[in-house]
Amino acid sequence: MSRRHRRRAKDLEFQRAAAVTTLLDQPEVDLDRLRSQACNKGLSNRELRSKAWPVLLGIDQATFAKAEYESLAVGTHRDTSVVDVDVQRSLWSYTEGWSDEKRDCSRAQLKSLLNAAIGHHHGNAFYYQGLHDIASVLLFEIGERPAFLVLRCLMTNHLRDFTRPTLEPVMELLELLMPLLEQADLELYRHVSSSGAPPYFALSWLITWFAHNVPALDQITRLFDLFVASHPLMPLYVAVIAMRASRIKLLKCDLDAAEMHRALHNLSITAFASADKLAHEAAVLFRQCPPSAVIHSRKICMNKSCAAEAHEVGGHWQVPEVPQPCKFGSSSRLRLWSYQGLSFAAAAVVLGVVLSTRAMSDRSFGTGSGFLAHMPPLL
Amino acid sequence: MYGGQPQTIKVVLLGEGRVGKTSLAQRYVRSSFNEGQAATVQAAFFTKAVRVQGQEIEVALWDTAGQEKFHSLGPIYYRDAHAALLVFDITDTDSFKRVKRWVDELHAMAGERCQLVIAANKQDLQHRSVSEEEAQEFAASQGAAYFQTSAKTGLGLEELFTALLSSVLDSLKDQRLHAAQGMQTTGRRHGGLVVASQDSISERKSSTCC
Known about the structure:
The structure holds 2 protein chains of 2 kinds. Chain A has helices at 3-25, 31-40, 46-57, 66-73, 80-88, 100-120, 131-142, 144-155, 168-174, 177-184, 186-195, 203-207, 217-229, 234-245, 247-251, 257-265, 275-288, 291-298, 342-360, and strands spanning 311-313, 316-318. By secondary structure, chain A is mainly alpha-helical. The radius of gyration of chain A is 21 Å and the shape is globular. Residues 331-343 and 352-379 of chain A have low confidence and may be disordered. In chain A, strands 1-2 form a two-stranded antiparallel ribbon. In chain B, 30% of the residues lie in helices and 22% in strands. Chain B has a 7-stranded mixed β-sheet with strand order 6-5-4-1-3-2-7, with helices on both faces. The chains are: A mainly alpha, B alpha/beta. The interface between A and B is large, with 62 and 44 residues. Chain A: It comes from Apatococcus lobatus.
């Protein structure tokens, strides 16, 4: 980057920060404008994000109670051991050049943050592998205390379908990916579809908000600006834009499900378009083709997930607690069975019933979580 | 019989979180070990070219996330698998219980074609909690092969995969004998990132996107 470009980028960043500061300094924050800024231009820096992310989510930071946090941070829950092992092997991203001591110190904070946020929900919102990736971005960017408030809010809002006892709702949401790709890039859609690869390659993109896949903090926080300010399905739009940005590479990929899965699994999200560009284009695609339009045109039933029905209340996105009744009758439910493997999964559920007796007597995974006990009936 | 294409053998790695599934895959495919291996959030796919019984084989290895919550994704990856590699950590009794559950499910769901191999991993650690006798007896009672492994040192990995692949090849030959026509292979895929092992015949370059 030339000196002139660097200076221009610096000026632009300064203007962005000034715009966000002005918005946050108003006695009554204009949420529409703050949201627009977060989606289209980003929130600029750490200090501004620590203020703006809670505001965008409708969080009153004064509700933080230190004693409660400290108590929850050392408490236990269903997934305490999973959190332990995930945290122990975490924080390799964003910490290049750090000493082991410094990384361990952040891991201790990450563990406290996760345990407190999970404990706050008293068994109503569960940990999943990948939540620790989101939590680590929050921790590094806005600090432990605001990160706790944001994380506990997200767990029952934007991330609601991921914190259910099983991942069935997530699999349902991933059904929306290919129809969105069809809207964004027909040729790529046909290519990926013909490979037969089911959309599970996008699982970590969705449930970690790309934190598992984007190793640069400045890039991932720019995407988080968009996600915090947007509909909870916005990560699917970024996924589609990232695929479109990598189309030349993907179109060269063999028409083979496993190879396509690998290519997409290993896709460098910001290699062909910066986070800023991805965020901007995803927001455009969202306006052109909101989730309701895809669901309606494809007659997709969302029986297990709630994110598609998210709506604004007082300028903040909220996700309903239970799935809404299907508007398209029973026939369209067959769509969910179109992917290879799901019928097999259903058979596994039958097995789950058979084995549940054994699972009930073996509670090694925590209260009420025996083998397959978390597989809800698919029908 | 395969028009020059190597036989593809699909193996799925299953087991509790942090037992070393990804590390075993990395050690086998890339001969590397990473102390800071992060948690697996979604299934990853590896391939490796080897020669077994004089035949070119492409091992298609699917590594899965270990958290119980991801369990329902299991069938997507073990269906069509020739073998399931069930991994437990010898210092963690819960992880051995999880292997037992996988064995139950696979017996019921994956059919006889899917061969079961149990890996008692982390043999490099001293404080074992799962006794060798118990694990071996369990494996024998379930008709599963059993190997002691360490992803860290590489202990047992080559032996495990050589035996696994030989066993799958024998089984495929038997199937061909019993059903000369209509045998389904999972060998739809080809190409891909190929990392040659010490005994592989050649290192084939990827012709695809990876």
